[in-house]
Amino acid sequence: MCRLIDEALAKGVKVAVCSTSNEKAVAAIVSFLLGPDRADKITIFAGDVVPRKKPDPVCYFLFCYFDNVQPLMCFAIYLLAAETLGVDPSSCVVVEDSAIGLSAAKAAGMTYTAEENFVTADAVFDCIGDPPEARFDLTFCANLLQKQYVS
């Protein structure tokens, strides 16, 4: 995941971590797993800022492309993240790890992938991989938004 986040940040793609957990816990986990320098560049949206939790539109990792920017009224974490980052939900790719999160991403109008075998996912990976075997990268995310990929 660090490789993909670094690639996104280097290209100016907005990256957020969203969770229904509290902000302090999420920030600590992100800093521990990704390192403090990388964590400082990622916006965190936590469950203590929205009144409704899963299966409302909530997420794990969110990669936002800024092509079709439109303001919207947001009511849950996925949509709050898109609104705050100034991106349209349809220009976001969500990396999820739960069926509830996948349902929430779809409800928010976002494209998603999952780390497990979810038959409703837009794409499924057993491993994100590192170069030269990388199959999941920023180009794939952009193609996923346009449905130009092979599962």
From TrEMBL:
Pfam (any one): Hydrolase
InterPro entries assigned: CbbY-like, HAD-like_sf, HAD-SF_hydro_IA, HAD_sf
GO molecular function annotation: hydrolase activity
Protein name according to UniProt: Uncharacterized protein
